[in-house]
Amino acid sequence: MTRTGPVGVGFIGTGMISNTYLENLARFPDIEVIILGDLNVDAAKARALQHGVGQWGTVDDVLAHPDVEVVVNLTIPAVHAEIASKAIAAGKHVWTEKPISVDRQSGRDLLVQADQAGLLVGVAPDTVLGPGMQTARRAIARGDIGEPLSAQTVIQYVGPDIFHPNPEFLFSPGAGPLFDIGPYYLTALVQLFGSVASVAAVGSQSRPKRTIRAGDRAGTVFDVQVPTHVSAIARFVDGGVSQSVFSFDSPLTRMGYVEVTGTEGTMIIPDPNFFTGEVKITRAPAFEAMGEKPVWETVPITGAYAERGLGVLDLARASRTGATPLASGELGFHVLDTLVAIDEALTQEQVVPVRSRIDRVPLVADDYDPFIATL
Ligand SMILES: NC(=O)c1ccc[n+]([C@@H]2O[C@H](COP(=O)([O-])OP(=O)(O)OC[C@H]3O[C@@H](n4cnc5c(N)ncnc54)[C@H](O)[C@@H]3O)[C@@H](O)[C@H]2O)c1
């Protein structure tokens, strides 16, 4: 029998980012958070009490709960696919934090498993569903910058060891700036240009050990296992090229820099780690005005504003309506395929083809409203 009313959600992984998800999901009437689970049941309990969630327990408690329809997987990247696969095996749809996995095979296997079970997989980031990126995509589709030709993206800062209480996983295989923050920028690029055809990259590591700066374990020294600066270039199947910097090695913080150049203008797109921001366009100056400050037109932002958790809502609604989630497993897999290809390119020092393909991701409907009950 098809259920009605809010979709029951269970969390696996109740660390740092679970706070943000719990705050935001509480605002969506189509979602009801039923239970929180973690390897560390005390952490799940503390988080549940903090947010007024009535039940907590182990991973198995979440998976066995009859009212949980969607599992929100907020574990560390190394176990994303394993936990997501368990959720599918338990008959649950799954939303997973990025990346979908840390290797192609387990990511692909997960999608096959879900497909065979008739269950949905959605993958972060959902920031691209926010009004910032959606407004930019609509403007580009209208031809506001002509034919898109190229893009540049930059995210650089000192690294998450400065704020995360348990940052080791962010410097381990499956993370580093490429796999940890690369998904935001690459998902944005794929939303703008479509499937990636090939990539090349170079990478480096500023130092082999880092020190935790925040929380109870501040002062602890740990090994850095991945490149902490990556420069990557990509070519897209339908045309267009991009260049990107992903760095945990820069004293100068520069975040959220996404610039798309078309035949008629250059567009600044909001930080893909956030849901909104400013969309601005500048056009080529007359020869006499070259060297002067660029003149910017601002594109008015349209669409409903919500934060992290929007993708869970979209997936939860899709699980009832039969729609395909916009932040889909296929998109998450194509981004993973691209991340792995960049990693291979920088190790092998050659151009690496990206084999997977995805259809152009549909836009969020104009009248999408996360804050009304629809189910
Ligand atoms: N922290 C952020 O600002 C942030 C932002 C966006 C996305 N993310 C992503 O969210 C995910 C979680 O990040 P976090 O910062 O909350 O990490 P965290 O280390 O604070 O929390 C991870 C939690 O997962 C649990 N866990 C680990 N392995 C498990 C397993 N096998 N079974 C059950 N529980 C397990 C841990 O006990 C811990 O409570 C990561 O993929 C990260 O990339 C984090």
Which properties best describe this structure?
nine-stranded mixed β-sheet, six-stranded parallel β-sheet, 17 strands, alpha/beta, 30% helix, binds nicotinamide-adenine-dinucleotide, 375 residues, single chain
How would you sum up this structure, described in words?
The protein has 10 helices and 17 strands. It is α/β, with parallel strands linked by helices. The strands form 3 sheets. The chain has a 9-stranded mixed beta sheet with strand order 16-15-14-13-7-12-11-8-17. A 6-stranded parallel beta sheet has the order 3-2-1-4-5-6, with helices on both faces. A two-stranded antiparallel sheet has the order 9-10. The longest helix is centred in the C-terminal third of the chain and has 20 residues, at 329-348. Nicotinamide-adenine-dinucleotide is lined by residues 12-18, 38-40, 43, 59, 74-77, 79, 83, 97, 166, 180. The site of nicotinamide-adenine-dinucleotide has 21 residues, from helix 1.
The unique ligands bound to this protein are: nicotinamide-adenine-dinucleotide
The percentage helix is 25-40%
Rg over C-alpha atoms, rounded to the nearest angstrom? 21 Å
Please tell me what the overall shape is: globular
Strand tally is: 17
Count of helices? 10
What series of H and E elements makes up the topology? Answer: EHEHEHEHEHEHEHHEEEEEEEEEHHE
| Main sheet characteristics | 9 strands, mixed
Strand order of the largest sheet: 16-15-14-13-7-12-11-8-17
Mean pLDDT: 96
| Span between termini | 14 Å
